[in-house]
Amino acid sequence: MKTAVQKVSTNKAALIYCRVSSKKQVKEGHGLDSQEQRCRQYAAVHGYEVMEVFPDDVSGGGDFMKREGMVALLAYLDANNHQDYVIVFDDLKRFSRDRDFHFKLRATLAAKGASVECLNFRFEDTPEGEFIETIFAAQGQLERKQNQRQVIQKMKARVMAGYWCFAPVLGYTYADVPGHGKMVVRDEPNASIVTEAIEGFASGRFQNANEVRRFLGTFPTISKGKYGDVPLNTVIDLLERVLYTGHISVPKWNIHMHPGKHEPLISVDTWHKVQERRKGTAIAPARKDLNADFPLRGFVTCASCEHPMTAAWTKGRNSYYPYYFCHQKACGEYRKSIKRDAIEGDFEELLQSLKPAPKLFKLFRMILSDEWDKRGAAAKTRQSTLKVQLADAEKSIDQLMDRIVASDNPKLIAAYEIRIEKLEEEKALMSEKVEQTVTPITTFDATFRTACEFLANPWKLWTSEMLEHKRMLLRLVFPQRIAYDRKTGLRTASIAQPLRLFGAFDESRCSVVGPEGLEPPTNPL
Predict the structure, then answer these.
(1) CA pair distance 85, 353, nearest whole angstrom
(2) Full set of structural domains in the chain with CATH
(3) What separation, in Å, do the N-terminal and C-terminal C-alpha atoms of the chain show?
(4) Residue 467 vs residues 102, 343, 431: alpha-carbon distances, Å
(5) 51 near 89, Cβ under 8 Å?
(6) Region 307-335: what's the mean pLDDT?
(7) What is the Cα gyration radius of the chain?
(8) Residue 239's pLDDT is what?
(9) Are 16 and 39 a contacting pair, CB within 8 Å?
(10) What is the mean pLDDT of residues 470-474?
(11) Which pLDDT belongs to residue 7?
Protein backbone atom coordinates (compact mmCIF):
# COMPACT_ATOMS: atom_id res chain seq x y z
CA MET A 1 0.00 0.00 0.00
CA LYS A 2 1.35 3.39 -0.98
CA THR A 3 1.03 6.06 1.71
CA ALA A 4 2.54 9.48 2.33
CA VAL A 5 5.58 9.65 4.60
CA GLN A 6 5.21 11.96 7.57
CA LYS A 7 7.14 15.22 7.13
CA VAL A 8 7.29 18.75 8.42
CA SER A 9 5.87 21.44 6.15
CA THR A 10 5.29 25.12 6.52
CA ASN A 11 2.37 25.54 4.11
CA LYS A 12 0.52 22.23 4.35
CA ALA A 13 -3.25 22.40 4.81
CA ALA A 14 -4.62 20.12 7.52
CA LEU A 15 -8.00 18.62 8.39
CA ILE A 16 -8.64 17.40 11.92
CA TYR A 17 -10.74 14.30 12.56
CA CYS A 18 -12.09 13.67 16.08
CA ARG A 19 -14.30 10.82 17.25
CA VAL A 20 -15.95 9.51 20.40
CA SER A 21 -18.00 6.30 20.48
CA SER A 22 -21.36 7.67 21.65
CA LYS A 23 -23.47 10.83 21.96
CA LYS A 24 -23.43 10.37 25.75
CA GLN A 25 -19.68 11.05 25.75
CA VAL A 26 -20.34 14.28 23.87
CA LYS A 27 -22.89 15.45 26.45
CA GLU A 28 -21.14 14.28 29.62
CA GLY A 29 -17.46 14.54 28.68
CA HIS A 30 -14.95 16.66 26.81
CA GLY A 31 -13.46 13.98 24.53
CA LEU A 32 -14.01 15.85 21.28
CA ASP A 33 -12.70 19.14 22.67
CA SER A 34 -9.55 17.58 24.12
CA GLN A 35 -8.83 15.67 20.89
CA GLU A 36 -9.24 18.82 18.82
CA GLN A 37 -6.95 20.77 21.14
CA ARG A 38 -4.16 18.16 20.95
CA CYS A 39 -4.49 17.94 17.16
CA ARG A 40 -4.32 21.74 16.83
CA GLN A 41 -1.17 21.82 18.95
CA TYR A 42 0.35 19.11 16.75
CA ALA A 43 -0.56 21.07 13.59
CA ALA A 44 0.95 24.25 15.01
CA VAL A 45 4.22 22.50 15.86
CA HIS A 46 4.47 21.08 12.32
CA GLY A 47 3.43 24.33 10.66
CA TYR A 48 0.09 23.06 9.33
CA GLU A 49 -2.83 25.36 8.74
CA VAL A 50 -6.05 23.80 10.08
CA MET A 51 -8.81 24.30 7.54
CA GLU A 52 -11.69 22.29 9.04
CA VAL A 53 -12.54 20.01 11.96
CA PHE A 54 -14.76 16.94 11.43
CA PRO A 55 -16.21 15.39 14.62
CA ASP A 56 -18.01 12.03 14.96
CA ASP A 57 -19.95 10.50 17.85
CA VAL A 58 -20.47 6.90 16.66
CA SER A 59 -18.67 3.63 17.30
CA GLY A 60 -15.41 2.93 15.49
CA GLY A 61 -16.53 -0.51 14.29
CA GLY A 62 -18.16 -1.13 10.94
CA ASP A 63 -18.33 0.86 7.73
CA PHE A 64 -16.72 4.30 7.95
CA MET A 65 -19.27 5.53 5.40
CA LYS A 66 -21.89 5.29 8.17
CA ARG A 67 -20.07 8.01 10.15
CA GLU A 68 -21.39 11.46 9.31
CA GLY A 69 -18.13 13.19 10.19
CA MET A 70 -16.03 10.94 7.97
CA VAL A 71 -18.52 11.21 5.12
CA ALA A 72 -18.33 15.00 5.42
CA LEU A 73 -14.52 14.86 5.42
CA LEU A 74 -14.44 12.76 2.23
CA ALA A 75 -16.94 15.11 0.60
CA TYR A 76 -14.72 18.07 1.55
CA LEU A 77 -11.74 16.39 -0.14
CA ASP A 78 -13.78 15.84 -3.30
CA ALA A 79 -14.90 19.47 -3.34
CA ASN A 80 -11.30 20.70 -2.87
CA ASN A 81 -9.40 18.20 -4.98
CA HIS A 82 -7.01 20.89 -6.22
CA GLN A 83 -5.13 20.81 -2.92
CA ASP A 84 -3.44 18.08 -0.89
CA TYR A 85 -4.35 17.74 2.77
CA VAL A 86 -2.98 16.11 5.88
CA ILE A 87 -5.62 14.30 7.98
CA VAL A 88 -4.64 14.66 11.65
CA PHE A 89 -6.11 12.54 14.49
CA ASP A 90 -4.84 11.82 17.98
CA ASP A 91 -5.05 8.01 18.21
CA LEU A 92 -5.14 5.10 15.77
CA LYS A 93 -8.34 3.80 17.40
CA ARG A 94 -10.11 7.04 16.43
CA PHE A 95 -9.38 6.26 12.81
CA SER A 96 -10.96 2.79 12.80
CA ARG A 97 -11.30 -0.21 15.10
CA ASP A 98 -11.81 -2.67 12.29
CA ARG A 99 -8.80 -4.10 10.47
CA ASP A 100 -10.36 -4.35 7.01
CA PHE A 101 -12.07 -0.96 7.13
CA HIS A 102 -8.85 0.62 8.46
CA PHE A 103 -6.92 -0.17 5.28
CA LYS A 104 -9.93 0.51 3.06
CA LEU A 105 -10.15 4.00 4.57
CA ARG A 106 -6.41 4.53 4.17
CA ALA A 107 -6.68 3.61 0.47
CA THR A 108 -9.70 5.88 -0.01
CA LEU A 109 -7.89 8.87 1.49
CA ALA A 110 -4.71 8.16 -0.51
CA ALA A 111 -6.78 8.03 -3.72
CA LYS A 112 -8.06 11.52 -2.92
CA GLY A 113 -4.51 12.83 -2.44
CA ALA A 114 -4.66 13.06 1.36
CA SER A 115 -2.07 11.75 3.77
CA VAL A 116 -2.71 10.73 7.38
CA GLU A 117 -0.78 11.58 10.53
CA CYS A 118 -1.41 10.34 14.04
CA LEU A 119 -0.20 11.87 17.29
CA ASN A 120 0.83 8.54 18.84
CA PHE A 121 1.61 6.40 15.81
CA ARG A 122 4.09 6.91 12.99
CA PHE A 123 2.93 5.72 9.54
CA GLU A 124 5.81 4.33 7.48
CA ASP A 125 5.69 3.31 3.81
CA THR A 126 7.76 0.17 4.40
CA PRO A 127 6.93 -3.53 4.76
CA GLU A 128 7.83 -3.36 8.44
CA GLY A 129 5.71 -0.23 8.93
CA GLU A 130 2.71 -1.83 7.21
CA PHE A 131 3.14 -4.94 9.41
CA ILE A 132 3.18 -2.86 12.60
CA GLU A 133 0.16 -0.88 11.37
CA THR A 134 -1.72 -4.15 10.70
CA ILE A 135 -0.98 -5.34 14.23
CA PHE A 136 -2.23 -2.10 15.76
CA ALA A 137 -5.38 -2.16 13.59
CA ALA A 138 -6.03 -5.80 14.53
CA GLN A 139 -5.45 -4.95 18.20
CA GLY A 140 -8.08 -2.20 17.97
CA GLN A 141 -10.50 -4.66 16.38
CA LEU A 142 -9.79 -7.22 19.11
CA GLU A 143 -10.45 -4.69 21.86
CA ARG A 144 -13.69 -3.60 20.17
CA LYS A 145 -14.96 -7.16 19.91
CA GLN A 146 -13.90 -7.96 23.47
CA ASN A 147 -15.73 -4.88 24.71
CA GLN A 148 -18.77 -5.86 22.65
CA ARG A 149 -18.71 -9.37 24.11
CA GLN A 150 -18.39 -8.01 27.64
CA VAL A 151 -21.32 -5.62 27.12
CA ILE A 152 -23.49 -8.40 25.68
CA GLN A 153 -22.63 -10.70 28.59
CA LYS A 154 -23.61 -8.01 31.08
CA MET A 155 -26.83 -7.29 29.20
CA LYS A 156 -27.71 -11.00 29.06
CA ALA A 157 -27.13 -11.32 32.78
CA ARG A 158 -29.33 -8.29 33.36
CA VAL A 159 -32.08 -9.75 31.19
CA MET A 160 -31.89 -13.14 32.93
CA ALA A 161 -32.29 -11.28 36.22
CA GLY A 162 -35.59 -9.96 34.87
CA TYR A 163 -34.66 -6.46 33.69
CA TRP A 164 -35.19 -4.90 30.28
CA CYS A 165 -31.90 -3.30 29.17
CA PHE A 166 -32.73 -1.88 25.75
CA ALA A 167 -34.39 1.36 24.65
CA PRO A 168 -37.71 1.87 26.46
CA VAL A 169 -40.83 1.15 24.41
CA LEU A 170 -44.04 3.17 24.24
CA GLY A 171 -45.72 3.11 27.66
CA TYR A 172 -42.52 2.60 29.66
CA THR A 173 -39.65 4.82 30.74
CA TYR A 174 -36.48 4.25 32.75
CA ALA A 175 -36.30 5.26 36.42
CA ASP A 176 -34.05 4.51 39.40
CA VAL A 177 -35.96 2.09 41.65
CA PRO A 178 -34.56 1.28 45.12
CA GLY A 179 -33.30 -2.30 45.22
CA HIS A 180 -33.46 -2.67 41.44
CA GLY A 181 -31.32 0.09 39.99
CA LYS A 182 -32.43 1.55 36.69
CA MET A 183 -35.43 -0.31 35.28
CA VAL A 184 -38.48 0.34 33.10
CA VAL A 185 -41.59 1.65 34.88
CA ARG A 186 -45.01 2.83 33.75
CA ASP A 187 -44.96 6.06 31.77
CA GLU A 188 -48.33 7.72 32.25
CA PRO A 189 -50.55 8.61 30.52
CA ASN A 190 -49.03 6.54 27.68
CA ALA A 191 -49.07 3.33 29.74
CA SER A 192 -52.85 3.47 30.18
CA ILE A 193 -53.29 4.42 26.51
CA VAL A 194 -51.22 1.39 25.43
CA THR A 195 -53.28 -0.91 27.68
CA GLU A 196 -56.53 0.39 26.23
CA ALA A 197 -55.24 0.05 22.67
CA ILE A 198 -54.04 -3.56 23.04
CA GLU A 199 -57.06 -4.73 25.02
CA GLY A 200 -59.31 -2.95 22.52
CA PHE A 201 -57.74 -4.91 19.67
CA ALA A 202 -57.97 -8.19 21.61
CA SER A 203 -61.68 -7.66 22.35
CA GLY A 204 -62.58 -6.60 18.81
CA ARG A 205 -63.22 -2.98 19.69
CA PHE A 206 -60.55 -2.17 17.11
CA GLN A 207 -60.92 -4.37 14.06
CA ASN A 208 -57.45 -3.83 12.61
CA ALA A 209 -54.11 -2.11 13.12
CA ASN A 210 -55.28 1.03 11.31
CA GLU A 211 -58.09 1.55 13.81
CA VAL A 212 -55.56 1.21 16.65
CA ARG A 213 -53.38 3.71 14.80
CA ARG A 214 -56.17 6.27 14.57
CA PHE A 215 -57.00 5.74 18.25
CA LEU A 216 -53.39 6.41 19.28
CA GLY A 217 -53.29 9.45 17.01
CA THR A 218 -55.96 11.20 19.11
CA PHE A 219 -53.56 11.56 22.05
CA PRO A 220 -51.01 14.41 21.99
CA THR A 221 -48.56 12.45 24.18
CA ILE A 222 -48.10 9.76 21.51
CA SER A 223 -45.24 10.58 19.12
CA LYS A 224 -46.25 11.12 15.50
CA GLY A 225 -44.34 10.55 12.28
CA LYS A 226 -43.29 13.17 9.76
CA TYR A 227 -46.77 13.15 8.19
CA GLY A 228 -48.53 13.79 11.50
CA ASP A 229 -49.75 10.19 11.94
CA VAL A 230 -48.61 7.44 14.27
CA PRO A 231 -46.32 5.18 12.16
CA LEU A 232 -47.88 1.81 11.35
CA ASN A 233 -44.65 0.09 12.46
CA THR A 234 -45.23 1.55 15.93
CA VAL A 235 -48.67 -0.08 16.06
CA ILE A 236 -47.37 -3.46 14.82
CA ASP A 237 -44.61 -3.39 17.44
CA LEU A 238 -47.19 -2.46 20.08
CA LEU A 239 -49.35 -5.49 19.24
CA GLU A 240 -46.42 -7.93 19.09
CA ARG A 241 -44.34 -6.72 22.03
CA VAL A 242 -44.07 -9.39 24.77
CA LEU A 243 -42.65 -6.83 27.21
CA TYR A 244 -46.16 -5.51 27.93
CA THR A 245 -47.07 -8.86 29.56
CA GLY A 246 -44.36 -8.49 32.20
CA HIS A 247 -42.03 -10.87 30.34
CA ILE A 248 -38.89 -10.36 28.26
CA SER A 249 -38.08 -11.91 24.88
CA VAL A 250 -34.80 -11.39 23.04
CA PRO A 251 -34.88 -13.76 20.02
CA LYS A 252 -31.25 -13.12 18.98
CA TRP A 253 -30.17 -14.46 22.40
CA ASN A 254 -32.73 -17.31 22.39
CA ILE A 255 -34.53 -15.78 25.36
CA HIS A 256 -38.32 -16.20 25.17
CA MET A 257 -41.04 -15.18 27.64
CA HIS A 258 -38.59 -14.79 30.53
CA PRO A 259 -40.32 -13.37 33.66
CA GLY A 260 -39.46 -9.70 34.16
CA LYS A 261 -39.39 -7.48 37.23
CA HIS A 262 -41.34 -4.63 35.60
CA GLU A 263 -45.09 -4.06 35.94
CA PRO A 264 -47.13 -5.60 33.10
CA LEU A 265 -49.58 -3.47 31.13
CA ILE A 266 -51.62 -6.43 29.81
CA SER A 267 -52.11 -10.09 30.67
CA VAL A 268 -50.46 -12.96 28.81
CA ASP A 269 -53.96 -14.14 27.86
CA THR A 270 -54.68 -10.78 26.23
CA TRP A 271 -51.39 -10.97 24.32
CA HIS A 272 -52.28 -14.44 23.03
CA LYS A 273 -55.70 -13.20 21.90
CA VAL A 274 -54.01 -10.39 19.99
CA GLN A 275 -51.66 -12.82 18.23
CA GLU A 276 -54.55 -15.11 17.32
CA ARG A 277 -56.51 -12.19 15.89
CA ARG A 278 -53.52 -11.03 13.87
CA LYS A 279 -53.07 -14.53 12.44
CA GLY A 280 -56.75 -14.74 11.49
CA THR A 281 -58.54 -13.47 8.42
CA ALA A 282 -57.55 -9.93 7.49
CA ILE A 283 -60.25 -7.34 8.08
CA ALA A 284 -60.61 -4.43 5.71
CA PRO A 285 -59.60 -1.07 7.18
CA ALA A 286 -62.40 1.05 8.54
CA ARG A 287 -63.62 3.75 6.18
CA LYS A 288 -61.84 7.06 6.61
CA ASP A 289 -65.02 9.01 5.83
CA LEU A 290 -66.78 7.76 8.96
CA ASN A 291 -67.36 10.71 11.25
CA ALA A 292 -69.45 11.77 14.19
CA ASP A 293 -71.92 13.59 11.92
CA PHE A 294 -73.15 10.32 10.37
CA PRO A 295 -72.54 7.37 12.72
CA LEU A 296 -74.93 5.11 10.77
CA ARG A 297 -73.17 5.62 7.43
CA GLY A 298 -72.30 2.24 5.96
CA PHE A 299 -74.44 0.41 8.54
CA VAL A 300 -77.97 1.26 7.45
CA THR A 301 -78.78 -0.23 4.04
CA CYS A 302 -81.23 0.78 1.35
CA ALA A 303 -84.38 -1.36 1.53
CA SER A 304 -84.62 -1.41 -2.28
CA CYS A 305 -81.12 -2.56 -3.29
CA GLU A 306 -79.68 -3.67 0.12
CA HIS A 307 -76.51 -1.64 -0.42
CA PRO A 308 -75.14 0.44 2.49
CA MET A 309 -76.28 4.04 2.45
CA THR A 310 -73.91 6.96 2.36
CA ALA A 311 -74.46 10.41 3.84
CA ALA A 312 -73.47 14.03 3.34
CA TRP A 313 -74.25 17.64 4.17
CA THR A 314 -76.40 19.23 1.46
CA LYS A 315 -76.42 22.94 0.84
CA GLY A 316 -79.88 24.53 1.12
CA ARG A 317 -81.08 28.06 0.63
CA ASN A 318 -79.80 29.34 3.97
CA SER A 319 -77.69 26.58 5.46
CA TYR A 320 -76.35 23.03 5.15
CA TYR A 321 -78.56 20.06 6.03
CA PRO A 322 -77.59 16.43 6.85
CA TYR A 323 -79.05 13.61 4.75
CA TYR A 324 -78.61 9.89 4.20
CA PHE A 325 -79.16 8.50 0.70
CA CYS A 326 -78.52 5.49 -1.57
CA HIS A 327 -75.62 5.93 -3.98
CA GLN A 328 -76.36 2.99 -6.31
CA LYS A 329 -77.26 4.31 -9.78
CA ALA A 330 -79.28 1.21 -10.68
CA CYS A 331 -81.48 1.58 -7.58
CA GLY A 332 -84.87 3.24 -7.76
CA GLU A 333 -83.98 5.20 -4.59
CA TYR A 334 -80.77 6.58 -6.08
CA ARG A 335 -79.90 10.02 -4.59
CA LYS A 336 -83.30 10.31 -2.87
CA SER A 337 -82.42 12.05 0.37
CA ILE A 338 -83.62 10.96 3.82
CA LYS A 339 -83.27 13.37 6.73
CA ARG A 340 -80.70 12.37 9.25
CA ASP A 341 -83.12 13.04 12.12
CA ALA A 342 -85.61 10.58 10.60
CA ILE A 343 -83.19 7.65 10.35
CA GLU A 344 -81.32 8.27 13.59
CA GLY A 345 -84.55 9.06 15.44
CA ASP A 346 -86.05 5.69 14.45
CA PHE A 347 -82.77 4.01 15.37
CA GLU A 348 -82.75 5.57 18.85
CA GLU A 349 -86.33 4.39 19.42
CA LEU A 350 -85.18 0.88 18.51
CA LEU A 351 -82.31 1.07 21.00
CA GLN A 352 -84.54 2.33 23.78
CA SER A 353 -86.95 -0.55 23.17
CA LEU A 354 -84.13 -3.01 23.89
CA LYS A 355 -83.91 -1.93 27.54
CA PRO A 356 -84.90 -4.95 29.67
CA ALA A 357 -87.39 -4.72 32.53
CA PRO A 358 -85.69 -3.92 35.89
CA LYS A 359 -86.94 -7.12 37.60
CA LEU A 360 -85.79 -9.28 34.70
CA PHE A 361 -82.39 -7.66 34.60
CA LYS A 362 -82.01 -8.06 38.37
CA LEU A 363 -82.71 -11.78 37.98
CA PHE A 364 -80.17 -12.00 35.16
CA ARG A 365 -77.52 -10.32 37.32
CA MET A 366 -78.22 -12.74 40.20
CA ILE A 367 -77.84 -15.75 37.89
CA LEU A 368 -74.59 -14.36 36.51
CA SER A 369 -73.29 -13.74 40.04
CA ASP A 370 -74.11 -17.31 41.09
CA GLU A 371 -72.26 -18.67 38.06
CA TRP A 372 -69.26 -16.51 38.96
CA ASP A 373 -69.23 -18.03 42.48
CA LYS A 374 -69.47 -21.57 41.09
CA ARG A 375 -66.53 -21.00 38.82
CA GLY A 376 -64.57 -19.56 41.71
CA ALA A 377 -65.19 -22.75 43.69
CA ALA A 378 -63.86 -24.85 40.80
CA ALA A 379 -60.66 -22.78 40.60
CA LYS A 380 -58.72 -25.03 43.02
CA THR A 381 -59.30 -28.05 40.80
CA ARG A 382 -58.14 -26.13 37.75
CA GLN A 383 -55.12 -24.90 39.70
CA SER A 384 -53.94 -28.44 40.41
CA THR A 385 -54.34 -29.40 36.76
CA LEU A 386 -52.46 -26.30 35.61
CA LYS A 387 -49.59 -27.01 38.01
CA VAL A 388 -49.20 -30.49 36.53
CA GLN A 389 -49.25 -29.05 33.00
CA LEU A 390 -46.73 -26.38 34.04
CA ALA A 391 -44.37 -29.02 35.41
CA ASP A 392 -44.71 -31.03 32.19
CA ALA A 393 -43.86 -27.94 30.12
CA GLU A 394 -40.75 -27.25 32.22
CA LYS A 395 -39.68 -30.89 31.87
CA SER A 396 -40.15 -30.74 28.09
CA ILE A 397 -38.08 -27.55 27.88
CA ASP A 398 -35.24 -29.18 29.84
CA GLN A 399 -35.33 -32.22 27.55
CA LEU A 400 -35.20 -30.06 24.44
CA MET A 401 -32.28 -28.07 25.86
CA ASP A 402 -30.39 -31.35 26.42
CA ARG A 403 -31.10 -32.36 22.82
CA ILE A 404 -29.77 -29.02 21.54
CA VAL A 405 -26.53 -29.52 23.47
CA ALA A 406 -26.14 -33.08 22.15
CA SER A 407 -27.06 -32.29 18.54
CA ASP A 408 -24.82 -30.92 15.80
CA ASN A 409 -27.55 -30.78 13.13
CA PRO A 410 -28.47 -27.12 12.45
CA LYS A 411 -31.98 -28.03 11.23
CA LEU A 412 -32.74 -30.06 14.35
CA ILE A 413 -31.38 -27.32 16.59
CA ALA A 414 -33.57 -24.71 14.84
CA ALA A 415 -36.62 -26.98 15.23
CA TYR A 416 -35.87 -27.50 18.93
CA GLU A 417 -35.51 -23.74 19.45
CA ILE A 418 -38.89 -23.07 17.80
CA ARG A 419 -40.51 -25.69 20.03
CA ILE A 420 -38.86 -24.21 23.14
CA GLU A 421 -40.15 -20.75 22.21
CA LYS A 422 -43.68 -22.13 21.90
CA LEU A 423 -43.39 -23.96 25.24
CA GLU A 424 -42.11 -20.80 26.93
CA GLU A 425 -45.23 -18.94 25.74
CA GLU A 426 -47.49 -21.74 26.99
CA LYS A 427 -45.58 -21.83 30.29
CA ALA A 428 -46.03 -18.07 30.79
CA LEU A 429 -49.76 -18.36 30.06
CA MET A 430 -50.18 -21.28 32.47
CA SER A 431 -48.20 -19.47 35.19
CA GLU A 432 -50.51 -16.50 34.85
CA LYS A 433 -53.60 -18.71 35.07
CA VAL A 434 -52.23 -20.49 38.16
CA GLU A 435 -51.76 -17.11 39.84
CA GLN A 436 -55.25 -15.98 38.83
CA THR A 437 -56.88 -19.12 40.26
CA VAL A 438 -55.31 -18.37 43.63
CA THR A 439 -56.38 -14.73 43.74
CA PRO A 440 -58.91 -13.46 41.18
CA ILE A 441 -57.76 -10.34 39.41
CA THR A 442 -61.04 -8.53 40.03
CA THR A 443 -64.36 -8.98 41.79
CA PHE A 444 -67.63 -9.80 40.04
CA ASP A 445 -68.75 -6.15 40.17
CA ALA A 446 -65.47 -4.88 38.75
CA THR A 447 -65.45 -7.50 35.98
CA PHE A 448 -69.03 -7.17 34.78
CA ARG A 449 -69.90 -3.61 35.77
CA THR A 450 -69.38 -2.18 32.29
CA ALA A 451 -71.08 -5.12 30.57
CA CYS A 452 -74.09 -4.96 32.90
CA GLU A 453 -74.44 -1.22 32.43
CA PHE A 454 -74.45 -1.75 28.67
CA LEU A 455 -77.01 -4.57 28.77
CA ALA A 456 -79.22 -2.60 31.16
CA ASN A 457 -79.53 0.22 28.64
CA PRO A 458 -77.65 0.01 25.29
CA TRP A 459 -78.97 3.45 24.33
CA LYS A 460 -76.60 5.11 26.86
CA LEU A 461 -73.56 4.03 24.83
CA TRP A 462 -75.14 5.59 21.75
CA THR A 463 -75.25 8.97 23.52
CA SER A 464 -71.44 8.99 23.82
CA GLU A 465 -69.66 11.78 21.94
CA MET A 466 -67.01 9.33 20.71
CA LEU A 467 -67.70 7.82 17.29
CA GLU A 468 -65.82 4.61 18.16
CA HIS A 469 -68.29 3.97 21.02
CA LYS A 470 -71.22 4.24 18.63
CA ARG A 471 -69.56 1.98 16.08
CA MET A 472 -68.78 -0.52 18.84
CA LEU A 473 -72.48 -0.51 19.87
CA LEU A 474 -73.45 -1.39 16.30
CA ARG A 475 -71.12 -4.41 16.37
CA LEU A 476 -72.30 -5.56 19.80
CA VAL A 477 -76.06 -5.20 19.33
CA PHE A 478 -76.65 -5.98 15.65
CA PRO A 479 -75.12 -9.05 13.96
CA GLN A 480 -76.32 -7.71 10.59
CA ARG A 481 -76.99 -4.34 8.98
CA ILE A 482 -80.48 -2.84 9.19
CA ALA A 483 -82.47 -1.91 6.08
CA TYR A 484 -84.33 1.42 5.94
CA ASP A 485 -87.33 2.22 3.77
CA ARG A 486 -88.16 5.85 3.01
CA LYS A 487 -91.86 5.17 3.58
CA THR A 488 -92.00 2.65 6.41
CA GLY A 489 -88.76 3.34 8.26
CA LEU A 490 -86.45 0.71 9.75
CA ARG A 491 -87.07 -2.89 8.82
CA THR A 492 -87.02 -5.66 11.45
CA ALA A 493 -83.54 -5.81 12.92
CA SER A 494 -81.51 -8.86 13.90
CA ILE A 495 -80.61 -8.46 17.57
CA ALA A 496 -77.67 -10.04 19.44
CA GLN A 497 -78.50 -13.08 21.59
CA PRO A 498 -78.42 -11.56 25.13
CA LEU A 499 -80.70 -8.65 24.26
CA ARG A 500 -82.96 -10.92 22.21
CA LEU A 501 -83.47 -13.15 25.25
CA PHE A 502 -84.47 -10.16 27.34
CA GLY A 503 -87.06 -9.26 24.73
CA ALA A 504 -88.48 -12.77 24.79
CA PHE A 505 -89.50 -12.30 28.41
CA ASP A 506 -91.78 -9.28 28.21
CA GLU A 507 -93.44 -8.63 31.58
CA SER A 508 -96.29 -6.73 29.92
CA ARG A 509 -97.45 -9.98 28.33
CA CYS A 510 -97.16 -12.03 31.53
CA SER A 511 -100.02 -12.71 34.00
CA VAL A 512 -100.98 -15.14 36.73
CA VAL A 513 -102.82 -18.26 35.60
CA GLY A 514 -106.44 -18.23 36.85
CA PRO A 515 -108.09 -21.00 38.88
CA GLU A 516 -109.76 -22.39 35.78
CA GLY A 517 -106.33 -23.21 34.32
CA LEU A 518 -105.23 -23.02 30.71
CA GLU A 519 -107.10 -26.00 29.28
CA PRO A 520 -110.52 -25.38 27.62
CA PRO A 521 -113.52 -26.28 29.82
CA THR A 522 -115.10 -29.72 29.32
CA ASN A 523 -118.62 -31.02 30.12
CA PRO A 524 -118.81 -33.48 33.01
CA LEU A 525 -120.16 -36.92 32.22
Answers:
(1) 87
(2) 13-147 (3.40.50.1390), 172-279 (3.90.1750.20), 300-355+457-505 (no CATH), 359-450 (no CATH)
(3) 130
(4) 60, 17, 38
(5) no
(6) 89
(7) 36
(8) 92
(9) yes
(10) 81
(11) 41
